[in-house]
Request: fold
Amino acid sequence: MVPPSLLHEFSHAETRACVQCLDGNPENRHHSNQFGVHLRTPGQRECAMGRFLLAFAAIVVTTSIASAQSPSPNGVKTLNPAGAIKTTGTWDVGTRAGDFVFVAGMRGIDPKTNTLVQGDEARIRQAFLNMKLIAESEGASLRDCVRIVVYVTDMFRFRPLVNKVQEELWGKPPYPPRTIIEVHRLNQDDITEVEGTFYAPMKK
Amino acid sequence: MVPPSLLHEFSHAETRACVQCLDGNPENRHHSNQFGVHLRTPGQRECAMGRFLLAFAAIVVTTSIASAQSPSPNGVKTLNPAGAIKTTGTWDVGTRAGDFVFVAGMRGIDPKTNTLVQGDEARIRQAFLNMKLIAESEGASLRDCVRIVVYVTDMFRFRPLVNKVQEELWGKPPYPPRTIIEVHRLNQDDITEVEGTFYAPMKK
Amino acid sequence: MVPPSLLHEFSHAETRACVQCLDGNPENRHHSNQFGVHLRTPGQRECAMGRFLLAFAAIVVTTSIASAQSPSPNGVKTLNPAGAIKTTGTWDVGTRAGDFVFVAGMRGIDPKTNTLVQGDEARIRQAFLNMKLIAESEGASLRDCVRIVVYVTDMFRFRPLVNKVQEELWGKPPYPPRTIIEVHRLNQDDITEVEGTFYAPMKK
Reply:
């Protein structure tokens, strides 16, 4: 059985091999299976390591996806909970440091397929659900969110949808302090991204 | 007397009822009185709940505006200090979690009228004053600010004004670490927004 | 010998005197020596205080650049480590508050010359190195980073370079949670800015 640390190394090695398909070129749309292995899509040049990695992935199928990282020198824990999206590139989905949980900017990627959810409202809901899952893996609910920043690519179109989705997911006030801004572009020409910080004290 | 929790619910229920006037359409300019009740302005369709709510607001006039929220499961306290702007939409103005105070992105809204202050410099000053009031409600001064992000819609025009306002409000160095960026659009086509985090330890 | 606190006051006084050359007008390019004194460049109107300050700077040459600030009322420590870039304007490069270190948005400014590094990749690397130096001055390595936000002015061109630089500087996973967005403009029409938060507990 492949130890978790090796699996994680593998996951990132694969990412480097495919870096050309990760950087915003809409012609190079890609998707990944649950092991983060890039699959060739029509019109995309085949990933050189694809076949090998698919085979390798089958071997590690019984290994936990939520691989453990050893903490940083100062005790920062990198998060990689089961069910979260797989990162492609030089980032991980979250950290815990002391009593706070920091979640990377989340977009509406379906963790089951690692592709963007179709439909504006559904995609925005998925972005918030992706954030929620990571926070909950460290014991923080949406109510324990201390701040969010929401980036949209069209304030008029997407801010009302963000409001609607938050109202649905939080259910009732209070809501976290929010900063919402319209930016020029998000990765993959996406429409909304949300970054959140949460509070989950080690000793309650 | 209406209990504070009911007042808060009411405030948010009203927000939902008027959500169409909150989402960036410059044709739908609105303003609110001190109870967060939307008043009809020329050219704006009348808010369906407006008359009822105005009447209701009169009843709760003696109730503290700064309604208390019970803390989150993990102990996050939602802030709603007297004198702060009233939120319209799915956000609150700030949180305290442990020793930190997080303030939502503040713009130059006059808390007395809930409308934007006229004049670029005056409006930017108001944004910082709004942030300051919320931080001070938890015992943090501007000198206890640990970071700010300033969003402007024109770097050339507004960065000098931000510098001027900060110099005036802080009085002298040191200043907090700052990130300033020009974005495509802010809510209500505003010109500057500032998000700040503060430090206010429970035990000094 | 000039006490450090006076040097710091001086440094900021000078900044105010020259505020017109700091606010984004590409016609007014300036540079500073290691004491933060603005030097006249061809085509720039002479700074009124320039000559006096240059002379004054010679006097304080033996004084530590990394001047100490007394902490804020709540204990926020303003950072000004040796080797860091010199700030021009109403900001400092970082703070420590409790167990966290907050670094201002860093761009690819060479601290030796206080001018922008030439070359896209080299400039982006410098931005991360500037952040790293400040974090390390408080005992936090890149592995102790809990979140970063990366602002780029072209997602297609600069995100791959950010990935490359992070891979080089971190060496291997894990990486911190990241939010990357394309914004309209950065100060000095720069290409990339990174804001990071770090964890460095007082008691390990």
Remarks:
- DSSP finds four helices and eleven strands in chain B.
